[in-house]
Records
---
Amino acid sequence: MSFSVTEPTNGTKWFAGILVAAYAVITLIPLIWIIATGFKSPVDSIAYPPVIVFEPTLEGYVNLFTDRTRATPDMLEAAGPPQTWYDEIARERGTVISGPSRYGERFLNSVIIGFGSTALCMILGTAAAYAFSRFRVPLKDDLLFFILSTRMMPPIAVAIPIFLMFRNLGLNDTHLGMILLYTAVNLSLSVWLLKGFIDEIPMEYEEAALIDGYTRFQAFYKVVLPQAATGIASTAIFCLIFAWNEYAFAVLLTSGEAQTAPPFIPNIIGVNGKDWPAVAAGATIFLVPVMVFTVLLRKHLLRGITFGAVRK
Amino acid sequence: MAQIRIENLRKEFGKFTAVQSSTFTIEDGEFFMLLGPSGCGKTTTLRMMAGLELPTSGEIYIDGEEVGQKPASQRDIAFVFQMFALYPHMNVGKNISYPLLSQGMPKAQVKQKVGEIAEVLGITDILNKPVGGLSGGDRQRVALGRAIVRDPKAFFMDEPLGALDAEFREHMSEELRALHDRMNATTVYVTHDQLEAIQMGDKIVVMNHGVVEQFGVPQDIYDWPATKFVAQFIGSPPMNFLDFEGTIGTGATKVQLGDVSFNVPEVREGTRGALTFGIRPEHVCLDDSAAYRGRVTATEYLGTTQIVTLDTANGAIKARLSSSDSVKVGDQTGLHFDPRTITLFNATTGQALKSAANAEVLADG
């Protein structure tokens, strides 16, 4: 076999494979831990040394989605036999289900605020990036730097002014307020990323469309957007992940109406203090949408991470 | 199809002037070349004609209508880009049909039209293929298809062969010219390749630094360049320049190069000072008996001809000779210039002096 610069040898392939596998295991351990804890009983969840093999139970999930009250044996007797499987799980712990928990609402809030701010960010970001990429904007470089500079401090540094502003504007604890806030934080990243992607699309495509009898907007919409799809998708993932995971502002600015899942999950209190399986169950379910979104767009994400590295 | 008239067209980008007051006319059905080195303003001129740039001042008439400030979509012209600019997210057929869809043509008619065009260009079999995997030539054909499908008033092409391999270029340039002749469409073609311009063009505009240097049919431009720039830019090797100081009176038929006097076409406007004597390499003959002497410093064999470089009292000079002539480096020989082909230039301004031979050509430009 002759030596080749581009084809890795078998040894190299094995080495790379082992390295990647090891890395995957290291990153997956916390994830596996949290998923497993969700299916443990409260005792197993705090056992030391940790139990690896355990009898799975849905108790954590039942506790996550329900509010329960402690009941005396007499009361349990009086309530009659359990009606459903989750009733049964609650009874075993000497409790009765008094109603659904607020996790569902919080989760829905996360979805509305996360996807809402991502969508808004993409619309504004694409428009701004296109303008910066294609038109002679006065003070373009200064404006671009200004946009970037909003990213230079940790967003939480301005938490107090934002809190006061939101209070005066009546945006505290509203969906709109959180969507606007996350959009503002993410916009700099999305403008810069998208500008990079749009810069890579040759002007000639739009010019061809202009010549072919389309208006500027049609050229943008029908020719530029389809080609920027990759960039838009990967930028959307970055924005969504930020908005989805954001904790500090959510704690500060939301309490009831618009509270997202991240501040809610750690505060799930069980009957006997912290209910770790329920917390883990909440975290597991919380992971799903971003995971699905990322897997769906993973092709684009890879390209987004390496963008600029390879010229077409 | 249409006549295109450019009047005093000017374009500035901030402080930089890309095109300075160009004026020329492209007749209906002409294959018109905009020729010049890169950065000379030829592409900017074309883009202004197409509506992709707005002129700073001046007028552009297409078919008698002033369109200088109109958007590209309303000019009814087609543009072939250097990198083809085929829409990458559409297949070949959709690319070609795209200009028709913007006009709201019914689907069935679009399909028929695209079919006809594909037939003309010989690309029927690739209509359903994505444009990504096509060869350079096929991309070129698709780009042409997209241009001709709409029957526009004029075709604008910006170095359309620039992205092709050398061997394929020749073939494609023939195909292009044939297509033009068949459609009899006004075509404006930008190139920096003087050979391509001379081969394909009915008329040529030579530009440099945003200025139109000369405008005319290829042979006139080749034989009677209006400026030293044109003389040097066109022809390979370019026209020879022999610099000398002197005075030429109006009506003179001889010039003095050192101690040797040469017959030249009758000069119409005399001048004095730094002058340049211009002669094309193919009009230089080696003649041992001639008074003007040179020493051979290099020979370059080109198959049927050879290029011989000689050192003279007024600078180096190249002669295109038959390969059968035997010339050796170091030979001392006499040089004879065909007197009917000589152009004299004012070396300071670079302008050709009007003479009996080139007066008619220079009057056009």
Note: Residues 103-134 of chain A form the longest helix (32 residues).
---
Amino acid sequence: MNLFFSLVVIAVLIALPWLLVGAAGLDYLFGVIVPYVALAVFVVGLIMRVLQWARLPVPFRTPTTCGQQKSLPWIKPSRLENPHSTLGVIGRMLLEVLFFRSLFRNTRSELRDSSRLTYFADKWLWAGGLAFHWAFLIVVARHFRFFLEPVPWCVSVMEGLDSFFQVGLPIIYLTDVIIIAALTYLFFRRIINPRLRYISLAADYFPLLLLLGIAVSGVWMRYFDKTDIVGIKELTMGLVTLSPVVPEGISALFFVHLFLVSALLIYFPFSKLVHAGGVFFSPTRNLANNNRVKRHINPWDYPVKVHTYEEYEDEFRDVMKAAEMPLEKE
Amino acid sequence: MAEDVKKPEELIQIDYGPPKRSWMDPTVKFERGSYNYAAVKDNQEYLSLPFPRKWQPYEDDWQLPDGWEEIIFKGFKERLEKYRSLRIFMDICVRCGACADKCHFFIGSGDPKNMPVLRAELLRSVYRNDFTTAGKVLGKFAGGRKLTVGVLKEWFYYFYQCTECRRCSVFCPYGIDTAEITMMARELMNLIGISIEWIGTPVANCFRTGNHLGIQPHGFKDSIDFAVDELEELTGVRVEAPINKKGAEILFVAPSADYFASPHYYTLLGYLQLFHEIGLDYTWSSYASEGGNFGLFHSAEMMKRLNSKIYMEAKRLGVKWIIGGECGHMWRVVHQYMDTLNGPADFLEEPVSPFTGTRFENTRATKMVHISEFTADLIHHNKLKLDPSRNDHWRVTYHDSCNPVRAMGLLEEPRYVINSVCNNFHEMPENTIREQTFCCGSGAGLGTDENFEMRMRGGLPRANAVQYVHDKHDVNILLCMCAIDKATLPPLLEYWVPGVEVGGVHEMVGNALIMKGQHDRPTDLRGTPYEQDGKEGDDNV
């Protein structure tokens, strides 16, 4: 049901530019207006989302500690898994964001012979996730070739590395293979594993399909369709320099690619994809475990009804006296 | 223990396959053994909590107050504005499933809604429906659910089937902490008078008498005096255990079970021996006679109301600093919340050990030191005369309690102490200890008799790891530093791994500690005689 819903939406998103650009000649709409709107929604939406998180209070300091605390001088603290300083927190966050440290811990539990629980290291999700995210980053960075003139040297160097194996014509980018493989894995894992299928919402299938659509259309253009790159660069540079033009002869496939990217940009700030920004705000990861060293202030703290010692003694004075316990008032 | 309990062989037939029906259709069956009774009306009234009434979860009609949906909506909105954690955790989950089999309740029950991701989705689905544009427009397609009585019953069932142990949070790529989500859900339910008896009663007791068990001051004194007498019989040494003594250097706060339950009691004997032997100038308090804080399992406000006593009492007695005993969730409160809630503790001094001169710099602001930090420091400086062979009849393993590990990082201190006082120490498998430790299955207020089956399920991964060292190394005692563990692990092990006892770290310290002026000490603290030929005597615990 959730999967079906996502498939239908993706099909519509592909069909719209495919049909309308060719038949109705709406290439200015799909080549210029939609991308501009999408970018605006993405930037404004994401900034608003981040500002909303940033202005929220953090009443308590509650890091999840995954290693030895800093206590006695002769006990070695775990500086990254249980950081007690800002530097440690930065290290922990870098490990988390760049290498998915927590996901790397992943295990799979199995109950064997209805008696023994066993735990196996399970790195597939970590590997698939990391492969996708890094490949996606590099693919996006490579696309700066289309938005900058002259093409900066770092983009060229990256392209060189990415086509290290020099296979195929045009030469195949490693990241193109990796991103499609990783997304395919992440998608099928949701369908094949019954537990994951059970928890998956449309909002889980849809972004994977959307990203797959983007990657496949891009690859198709580069390797099979051999789209008119000069025309495309004219269009993209036009977008960047705010003097948009839509040259003749750009294939409908390009408009499909661009429209899916626009859809991703619009979808991003309102979906789970904001985990990209949200992870930096996670209070269990981005705070130092220095709770007993430095007082943390709760900005909305308020006085509460307490039971004072005086009230306590008033209630129990007789029995305390009989038990010869010290009293404030005889 | 209830009588109609399933047998272990039966209980371990666990079906991990998800059901056909979508999780979005709420279905809860309140079957005996897997839920907790409702909070008692009188206690709710005593604590001035809203909508006190007589009701039970298994009844169809929960007598919800008029407009309860609106009350929860407002409460939810308020908390989304007060807690960044809640908003972030509602927004960024990608349902990757890494947390699924990290929860002891899922491993022990196979119920998909015990996967942390779905437990959170119970709340998140309502969040999407009420607070996000996509949810408002697309409803179910965007994963939104309207808050209905059915959903509320699910909340009650599953948020009181989470022990706030934070194990899932260790594995989550974004650190989403189900404990935080459970705490928020429980706060929301409190707003319409829904809570459980095993939280409401201890909280009301603690507010009134200073401890969860409701022990009045003279009863408290009796217990401590009794322990002093018994210790004299066991060791020949008469120790002092001052109560409410003004001007003592240190206030000592332990969980109340230590002086009223077994096997906690042997840990109490260990403390008393230790403090006497080093000549610590300290006092107990009858007013602050509880280190634990079931308010943590109720609401931030209740946690603050109960926790306030420790600093108020430290101030009244004029002590310099505080030592806290062996307890799990107590240390979550002391370490992560106390100073924020009831500080600053500027009337106390930065803790310095009077015997070793060690400055406990890690407690500079809160001024409260964990007993194992204190003891490890003493042992490291050779201040104690120890004979670990007096624990040779024990083959020990150590259970890391959830909170001191995942909300503090207390890993090496207890291990150093254990290794100094025991000769036979064997760790459980690595995926079940330290930051990956498994909960006892009964924390966060769930340790009741009526919830027995679910506790046995939740405790299965812990018990299974104990089984492993029991089979492999003949381990016969599971040490821990948590009062809830000491109360709930014995029935758990009796159920899954008969033949393994439960004890505290300072019980082992007490056994090994050589005291000045002691007599022959023919038994350990449990009264078990030492035998010359190495065989263990009759177990007359």
Note: Residues 534-541 of chain B have pLDDT under 50 and may be disordered.
